[in-house]
Amino acid sequence: MDDTVPCVSFIGIVDFSQEARWLYMTPSVSDLLGYEPHELRGQPSIELVHPDEMARVRKLHYDTIRQDKAACLVYIRMKHKDPHKGYVLCGVSRTIVHNVTVGSVSFANSGSKALHNASTAQEITVISPTPELEFRRWHDPSPMPPMPIPESLRRSFDGLDGDSSPPPKSDEDSFTYEPLPSQSFRTAFILDRFSVHCTILYCSNNLLITANTIEKRSFFDFVAKQDEDTLRTWIDTVKGWGVNERGQPSDGGFGFGKFKLLVEGRDHIAGDNRPPEPTPARQRHSSNYLSHTRVRQSRSNGRGHGSAVLPSRTASSPEGEALIVDAIFSAHSDGLVVILRRGTQS
After folding, report:
1. Are residues 262 and 132 in the same domain?
2. Measured between alpha carbons, how far is 40 from 9 in angstroms, rounded to an integer?
3. Would you list the DSSP string of 163-221?
4. 7: pLDDT confidence band, cut at 50, 70 and 90?
5. Which position has the higher pLDDT, 5 or 265?
6. Structural domain tally of the chain?
7. What are phi and psi of 160, to 5 degrees?
8. Which terminal residue of the chain, N or C, has fewer Cβ atoms less than 10 Å from its own Cβ?
9. Which of 111, 113, 71, 110 is nearest to 92 (CA)?
10. Is residue 76, in this structure, part of any structural domain at all?
11. Residue 142: other Cβ atoms inside 10 A
12. Which residue has the higher pLDDT, 117 or 310?
């Protein structure tokens, strides 16, 4: 691996099932794995994982849900549609958002971009046997996993023991589980990264904002005026991180912050009074696809568990009801992901 590897990424959402079925993914999946979104939607994402890593990835998927994790990064091998390309080493980010896992998949690269992504993640797991991606955290005693015993030595040891039977399967090899219940009260937004106003393309549930009222509105419509300049700076910074060595849009690690979210948006902006922004041709399919998916999933995803109980709000302000929220920001080839949860007054 070297810095000539293209660093594209796509945003993906999977369910809580054992097979982690794709709910949708953005069009850049075709650049990275060769598939069109419609070929994967509803299919098990686990089936794209290298057979040697499948059991560990399924266990990791379960642990991520059960422990309600956020901003985690794992390195695994995923199957390309073209059999001649085999398996592609990928960095996969993941955050639990109520009843789905939201994240991205990107080409893994051992250069500065990978180091930055790893340094901003809350947790790093390297499943593929790739020493150059064994990043060390400040508090970890060692970045390296235990050294496997070579097959030739394993046979010698078996001969000494008088036992040539294969080693028993680990718990991970036979790991199964029933779908888990909803977890954190988080909401995921997918924004147009090529728009000055960060147009909302998708909202995952109704826990913070009524999702079916915000399509094509600016994300900043829902940010308190006092926080808007700060939010724009944060998002511009994350966009800057999400550029590879060739200046192409790519993944860019995680940024964290806190701001005041306006539940209904600003009255003077409601109704989308500003003229619509032109969408770059590369992104039109993405916007249409996400909008279609949002309408379809409004009946079946996190909003389909019945009427969601909204968290209590802060006192009303001149801008309407508001919430203090904690945010995770990340940039990807064809979108920005913002994940919010209710925060506390600092």
Report:
1. no
2. 16
3. --SPPPPPGGGG---PPPPP---EEEEEE-TTSTT-BEEEE--SSSS-GGG-TT-BGGG
4. low
5. 265
6. 2
7. -65, -35
8. C
9. 71
10. yes
11. 8
12. 117
> Virtual CA dihedral for 11, 16, 20, 23, nearest 10 degrees?
-50
* Domain harbouring 111, CATH code: 3.30.450.20
Distance CA 243, CA 102 (A): 21
Q: Is residue 91 part of a domain?
A: yes
Q: Does 98 share its domain with 20?
A: yes
Residue ranges in the chain assigned as alpha helix (H): 29-33, 37-40, 54-66, 112-120, 151-161, 225-241, 281-297
**Dihedral sign (CA 37, 42, 45, 51):** negative
Domain extent at residue 292: 186-342
Q: What is the pLDDT of residue 140?
A: 54
The CA-CA-CA angle for residues 184, 208, 65, to 5°, reads 15
Global pTM value: 0.74
Tokens of 282: 């590369």
Structure tokens at 176: 């199964």
Q: Does residue 148 form part of some domain?
A: no
- Region of 306 (left: φ > 0; alpha: ψ -120 to 50; beta: rest) is left
| DSSP count for the chain of H helices, then E strands | 7, 11
115 in a domain, yes or no? yes
Asked if residue 14 lies in contact with residue 22, where contact means CB atoms within 8 angstroms, the answer is: yes
115 shares its domain with 191: no
- C-alpha span between 333 and 27 (Å, rounded): 9
Is the distance from CB of 126 to CB of 25 less than 8 angstroms?
no
The residues, any chain, with a CB within 8 Å of residue 29's CB and separated by 6 or more, are 10, 12, 35, 36, 37, 40, 105
Interacting residues of 284 by C-beta distance below 8 A, sequence separation 6+: none
Structure tokens at 110: 């051992």
- With CA atoms as reference, report the closest residue to 224 among 264, 254, 183, 173: 264
Domain identity same for 209 and 93: no
Cβ-Cβ contacts under 8 Å for 13 (sequence gap 6 or more): 22, 23, 24, 25, 100, 101, 102, 103, 188, 204
